[in-house]
Amino acid sequence: MPEAMKQIRADLGADAVILNSKEIRQGGFLGLFKKRKIEVVAVLDPQPVAQKKREVRNNDLVFGATTGSDTDSNSKVLNEIKYMKKILEQQVKQSNHSYLPDYQLAYQYLIEQEIEEGLAKELIESVITEHEKEEQSATRESAFTTLQTELNSRLKDVSFQGITYDQQIIQFVGPTGVGKTTTLAKIAANCMLIDKKSIAFITTDTYRIAAIEQLKTYARILDVPVEVAYTTEDYHQAVKKFSEYDLILVDTAGRNFRDEKYIKELEKNVDFNTKTFLVLSLTAKPNDMIDIYHQFQHLSIHEVIFTKLDETLQYGSMINIALKNKVGIAYLTNGQDVPDDLIKPNANIVSHYIINELSEYLNE
């Protein structure tokens, strides 16, 4: 494709517009040994894309009071211009990956969704392989449809269990500010209202008075008992006190995740009857999230809970963490309301969040 673009620029100049590009096979003997080639249809446009875009927008204003079909037609033209602009931008960037424009656009979209570069490359190359197998041409629709199918396929091996009641103690860990306490309350409310289970709270977050009061407030609203554990001995006494309850939810302190002493303190409370959920915020930097996971993985993380989906438009870290570390996704949260803003995910829901921002991306 880069060679084709050079030839087009040499023949038609910088104002050339790509109308279509596809991979074809020619030559060969008895249907075998065909060579792969790139066919590109280009025209010389006397009006730059930016100028056409402004003219169409002006037409929208002129014809806004006419028939609905005119408005729909203008809208389609605008969308196509925006899409062509994206294609041209990718061609100008000349990425190191020699993908056809529609595949390159899909690749760039994954990168902007904060999916790790190596994983994004794997996904796009899987899409290309699938299209070659089916002898399917690259188009915007086919690239993203196959991409979502590929995401679903890879997520089939990811667990989405959440609370299963096979262990009595559920410990919520994670860095400060990710929403552990609120998430704990949402899960508790769902366990009580939907599964009719008896719940008790323990908090070891004695570093912040506000955290204790917040959990006590939730405990009063849900009418469940709560104990504050200042020491390891306090913690074990609280566990013994609540031994008759179906589920004990433990809220841990939000501390600097790089502090190894803090991680070792958490390890003291983990035994055969404890399941640990790591709570991560999607508003965090992707590299920080990976570092956080590695720091906490010594606690035998069962599954991850991703919070603050409503505060970001980038969801790629869910894929990075789940696929790269082969760890499950227990819950997603998308707001502060208890118990409403809690999502029980599956492969389709996660892939939908990744692909859902495509229309906004193309219209930027």
What would the keywords be for this entry?
single chain, 364 residues, alpha/beta, Rossmann fold, 2 domains, 8-stranded mixed beta sheet, two-stranded antiparallel ribbon, 49% helix, 17% strand, elongated
How would you characterize the overall build of this protein?
The protein has 364 residues and is α/β, with parallel strands linked by helices. The chain has two domains: 95-157 and 348-364; 169-345, P-loop containing nucleotide triphosphate hydrolases (Rossmann fold), CATH 3.40.50. Helices cover 49% and strands 17% of the residues. The chain has helices at 2-12, 49-63, 68-93, 101-112, 117-133, 140-155, 180-193, 209-222, 232-241, 260-267, 286-296, 316-325, 347-356, 358-362, and strands spanning 16-26, 35-44, 169-173, 199-203, 226-228, 247-251, 274-281, 301-307, 328-333, 342-343. The strands form two sheets. Strands 5-4-6-3-7-8-9-10 form an eight-stranded mixed β-sheet, sandwiched between helices. Strands 1-2 form a two-stranded antiparallel ribbon. Helix 4 (101-112) runs antiparallel to helix 5 and helix 5 packs across helix 6 (140-155). The two termini are 25 Å apart. Mean pLDDT is 81; it is low at 52-66.
Largest sheet: number of strands, sense, barrel closure? 8 strands, mixed
Main sheet: which strands, in order across? Answer: 5-4-6-3-7-8-9-10
How far is the N terminus from the C terminus? 25 Å
What letter string, H or E per element, gives the SSE order?
A: HEEHHHHHEHEHEHEHEHEHEEHH
Q: How many β-strand stretches? A: 10
CATH topology of the largest domain, which one?
Answer: Rossmann fold
* CATH first level of the largest domain: Alpha Beta
Tell the overall outline.
Answer: elongated
Separate helix tally: 14
Proportion of β residues?
Answer: 15-25%
Low-pLDDT parts are: 52-66
Number of domains: 2
